[in-house]
Structure formats: C-alpha cells, structure tokens
Structures
1.
Amino acid sequence: MSKRRWWSVWLLVLFISLGSPQKVAAQAVADSWRFPMTAASTRIEPGFNYGQWVGKNYNCDGSFSTINLYHMGIDVITNNTTTNSCGMNDNTSGMPVYAVANGKVTFARWGDYPGDSLVIEHTVPGGTKYYSAYGHIAINSGIKSGTIVSKGQYIATVAHITDRKWEDHLHFEIRDVTNAFNFGFLNTMGKGYVSSLGGFNSSWLNACKFLGDRGVALASNCIR
Ligand SMILES: [Zn+2]
C-alpha cells in the first residue's frame, strides 16, 4: 500500500473515533471491590451468614414464624449493640450502603421486600459478570435500573422495617451468572432463602469469601 493510502486509512480511523462519541456512560470494569457498608462499624447478625440454616424467626412478643430454609445472603448490622424494649437492635437503619464495585444497576424495586431492593451487575476484567444484591434498604434518589455506579458510591441507606419483627439490617448477596436471568430477586426465589443447597441455587456465592478473596476488609463475624 502506498504512503498516501496509509494516510487515508489513518484519517478514516481518526474521523470514525472522533465522530462517534459514546452517548451512554460506559460501565467501568469491576477491578476492585469493597464491603457494602463500613466494615469497621458493622458485623454479621449471628446465624445469618451465607448458607446458614434458619429454623425460626422470633418476634417481639415471643411468637415465631417457621422458616426452615438456608439463608443465602449475609445480614449486615451495626456494631452498636443497644437494643429496644424487645431486645432487638434497631440502630442499623439509616446507615449508608455502598456499591461494592463499579457496575450497572439492573434491578430496582421499591417497598415490597420489605424495604427497597437493588441488583448491580459487575463485569470483571476478562468479561465475567457477577451480581451484588442489596435488600431492606431505602434507595437514594437518582439510583434506578440502568444507572451506572462506581465502587463506593453511596446508593442507599438501611431501612427501618416497621411491619416485621426482625432487626433492621442490610441483606446482601453476591451471585454469579448461573441463574442471573432467572432471579425473581427476593420474591419468587424465597426472599434470599432457598430450600436446598446446590443445583439451581448454585448462583449464590458466599459474599464474605468472594469479597475476602479480593482483599476486602470484612465486617466482624463475616464467615469465609
Ligand atoms: Zn438476610
């Protein structure tokens, strides 16, 4: 090819790159991770790590509901151990929740979990996708399906759940793509619980192990 034709090729490439500005903010690669709340001020509710069997949920008045399911997320609560008249800890509500890595919100629902819920899609170097899920929260304004978020972005606060008897907490999950498009997130899949481990349920990963393996400082009692 002549010198002159090479120049034309380079000019063409230059014009194409200048003439096609990206109209949508690109989803940055998730190459670094953090804990979904401030790790130093939080812990995992005992009995509510990944894969732990939950038999019963006790209410304020001593009555209980039978769960008999495996908890597939981690429940993050404050280190402040002051309790209310029922012996329950309501100090976690209002605490900030952060995106654990760069990503794009692929699911946002308000009000019926109870509390709001969010799922963020994270594409890691190499192209593999992971999903972080956040439940029992109050979503910050401006955060909705399609929003591009960056690691550490303040996306929500922990909600105060008045119509349930459990303590205020962030229900947090990490999932892979195994059943990413079959989520029925926090609804048809049993609100973060499953009846058996493995098989269809294998899209849930141990969030403590996943983040810990990536060098993230974890809340206390986060079992890897
Ligand atoms: Zn939970």
2.
Amino acid sequence: MIRDWACICDEPHIMPVGTTTKRRLTIAIDFDGTFAEDPEAFREIVEVFQARGHQCIMVTNRPEEWGQDVRRLVGDLMPIVFAGRFSKAGAVYRHGYDVDIWMDDMPHVIEMDGVIYLGGAA
Ligand SMILES: [Mg+2]
C-alpha cells in the first residue's frame, strides 16, 4: 500500500493526493446521459465547484436547435457550448475554454468529430 507519495512530475497540474490547489479549474459537463440523469445533483455539484472559485461549462453534441431541454434544465447555472457535429474538445477551444476536467458518460467521443445527436428529450 502506498501511504505517502510525492509528485514526481514537473507538470504543475499534477498534485499529490490530498493536497489542495488554488488553481481555478474549468470543468466541462456533458448533458445527455450525464447532467440530465440527475439535474438536481449536478446543480449542487456545480454550485460547490463555483463557490470554490472553479468554472463549470455545459458541453453537448446537441445542435443549438435541439437545445430547449438543455436551456430549460441548465438555465443560467453555467454557459452552454453546443458542439453539434464537431468534437466537444474543438468546440470548447473555439469558445475560449481550456478544460481541465470532463464529466461525460461517453468520454471516448469528446475529441471525435461527426457525432450525431439523434434526438429525444432529456
Ligand atoms: Mg452524453
């Protein structure tokens, strides 16, 4: 069992477990299959992160014209990026965000272009 471990990486974003960071994190949260599964819980999580100075954004592969459910459930809690058929990673970059943490039920498609939203209410 590893009881104490030190950061052996020079990258500043990798910290030993249990240490705290004052760095402002940007946390990207997916909608379908993630936030929409339990909006109340995610709302509380987002509010905790925000109260601690971190930034949360909603990132969905839905096109903007299918965004009614997203806007209704997210409201003004956090900005919404509609990636549509483009990769979420590319979409957030174009919107000026540098995401540190992704919360997504399908992490394998975050960097994938051509994802098609097939419809269906949240
Ligand atoms: Mg999803």
